[in-house]
Amino acid sequence: MELFNSVESNVKSYCRTFPEVFHKAKGAKLFNESGEEYIDFFAGAGALNYGHNNGYIKERLINYIQSDAITHGLDMYTKAKREFIQKFVDSILTPRDLNYKLQFCGPTGTNAVEAALKLARKVKKRTNIFSFMGAFHGMSMGSLAATSGIGSRQGAGVPLDNVTFIPYPVGCMGNIDTIQYIETILTDDHSGIEKPAAIIVETTQAEGGINVTSVEWLRSLSELCNKHDILLICDDIQVGCGRTGEFFSFERAGIVPDMVVLSKSISGYGLPMSLLLLKPELDIWTPGEHNGTFRGNQMAFVAATAALEYRENTNMDKGTKEREEFIKNFLNERIKPLHKDFDIRGIGMIWGIDFSLLGGEKSSKEIVTRCFDNNLIIERAGREDVVVKIMPPLNIEMDVLEEGCKILEKSIIEFLSNSEYGIAIESKIEETV
């Protein structure tokens, strides 16, 4: 660790939670240099929905590289891009009756968010954006302005303007009728808040603490945007690509956002790629008005095409829902009874255990540390990081999923047995793993 600690910047974060040197990975498991095995309930922060080194995708990628096909293409026409576009249209857009144009952005999600916000302002000729408390949309200046966490915002060094934050309907201020609140802002000539070009929303806040909105609220938000001529942008970077049970997280509500932002698992293999979907009438860009050197990641196109095939070949949505049922039942039947103050919530294969009433950040941090000591990689989210976030690869084997859940249970029992928040229940530990 000495080399990393002495040379690498202090900005590093995840390695502080998981202080181990990893060397190999396969499926839902990582291996350190000595071969020790860890179950992965983190999935590259949502970038590895298909697992580490997915065999189907890897074979396609290797064949492409060995053929000396083009690897860097800016936004030139290439065979790899054409095949991805055709597959995405045929497998994702057409079956859902969605008519979107595709804009290939820079290599990370924040760049696609930047593109969406820039285009919304250009189309509507308004400067303001509505975002939600608890939102995370990226770390570059425009997307950071729409991100609510003070810890992230403090790194900007300049004022982050032209965004108004609205209470989210779930979580810290979930008792507020946010739709009526927005309606009041828009119709009150003394609200002091400018009408926005767009409202950007995560249908489930991931970094915000696994806050899942209702179908009814999403429909009301969509109707409000239509009524007031405001664009609706859905940020599906972390909870899209099947994470919530369907490819797009908004499908359950039957709405059609004006723009959709994808990244992380769209590439299928953890390769850098981001994508903005936009309704055709919004495509008023001039050539090169939003560009980037690496918006043509050919290997990501190849992997993304293979990933869409893999989804179909394995009936992934069905498998995700089966695993969702297992996780939900395990958390409610095995974890929740351990303490009356646990709040468990989630959808698809993203779930959280909220420790707000059980020691908060100190407790959640100890749980994650104990999990790592027990060979489970799991992260935290939410205000003050009080939510332990469960987010394994979507195709994790059922026995590995069960083993990981048992490690989580064991770690929580260990914590409760040695803290002021629970009674001595060591006898249960041996039953869990």
UniProtKB/TrEMBL annotation:
Transferase is among the record's keywords: yes
Gene3D superfamilies to which the protein is assigned, alphabetical: Aspartate Aminotransferase, domain 1, Type I PLP-dependent aspartate aminotransferase-like (Major domain)
PROSITE patterns: AA_TRANSFER_CLASS_3 (PS00600)
Keywords assigned by UniProt, alphabetized: Aminotransferase, Pyridoxal phosphate, Transferase
Molecular functions per Gene Ontology: diaminobutyrate-2-oxoglutarate transaminase activity; diaminobutyrate-pyruvate transaminase activity; pyridoxal phosphate binding
Family assignment from sequence similarity: Belongs to the class-III pyridoxal-phosphate-dependent aminotransferase family.
Designated name of the protein: Diaminobutyrate--2-oxoglutarate transaminase
Organism: Clostridium cellulovorans (strain ATCC 35296 / DSM 3052 / OCM 3 / 743B)
